[in-house]
Amino acid sequence: MAGIFEDLLLSAIMIGDVATGKSSLVTRCAEGTFEEAEQITTGVDFSVAKLTLDDKEGPTRVRLQLWDTTGQERYHAITASYYRRAMGVVLVFDVTRLDSFKHLKEVWIPMVIENADPEAVWMLLGNKVDLADWREVSMEHGYALAEGLGCPYVEVSARENHLVFDAFHILAKQILRYTYPKLNPCASPRAKSIKLGKEDEHSECCR
Predict the structure, then answer these.
(1) DSSP letter assigned to residue 119
(2) How far apart are CA 59 and CA 2, in angstroms?
(3) Strand-pair category, 58-69 with 44-55
(4) Which alpha helices (H) appear in the chain, and where do they start and end?
């Protein structure tokens, strides 16, 4: 597969409350950096993370478009239009803020169900685990929600770069396995090329 299907274009949308660290996670994954100053997104920002995924068939290079959406309510109508175009949905909450976790169930998950492509894969991220002393959402609650959604759950820290790349690698692999072949059947990374001989090029059925 390596050398044939390279730089596959995947997409994922980041969803969650304001100040849960969505932008910091995107910056960490796409650029490998972290900014202490809080980043407030208005509308939708775009970044691309270049990832190399390893599996038994060999490495696959992908470009993962990350659509970083604002958590501000007044922009919901704008960001909702991006949901259906995403192959992956990343739900982000801040483990030090119980309200951000509750809002996933009350606000964001219903929006995803209403607007996202049914074929899109989901992932749940609990960010800011480096602030353990201020934690309000337990790991058990995170796993319970993810189990109910049928998606992976990873606890991360954009500041400490804890499991950020691992999380997005898992997401990209999930997209390639479940979503990409359904949305792009002719460009599936598992597709096989067929060489035509001269007799095939001029077969009776094509005349």
Answers:
(1) T
(2) 6
(3) antiparallel
(4) 22-31, 76-83, 98-103, 109-115, 139-149, 164-174, 180-183, 198-201
User: Rounded to an integer, what distance in angstroms lies between the CA atom of residue 142 and that of residue 203?
Assistant: 58
**What number of other Cβ atoms are within 10 A of residue 204's Cβ?**
5
Residue 63, CA distances (Å) to 43, 47, 78, 197 in order = 22, 10, 24, 34
Structure tokens belonging to residue 98: 């119980």
Angstrom distance (rounded) from CA 25 to CA 91: 12
- Kindly provide the b/e burial profile for residues 111-131, where b requires at least 16 CB atoms within 10 angstroms of the residue's own CB: ebeebbbeebbbbbbbbbbee
**Contact in structure between 155 and 124 (CB atoms under 8 Å):** no
Q: How confident is the model at residue 11 (pLDDT cuts 50, 70, 90)?
A: very high
Q: Identify which of 7, 2, 14, 35 has the alpha carbon closest to the alpha carbon of residue 108.
A: 14
Whole-number Cα distances in Å, 164 to 2, 66, 153: 25, 13, 12
Q: How many CB atoms lie within 10 A of CB 151?
A: 18
Beta-bridge partners for 13: 67, 89
d(CA 68, CA 84): 14
Question: Full-prediction pTM beyond 0.90?
Answer: no
Determine the pLDDT at residue 74: 54
The per-residue pLDDT for 80 is 73
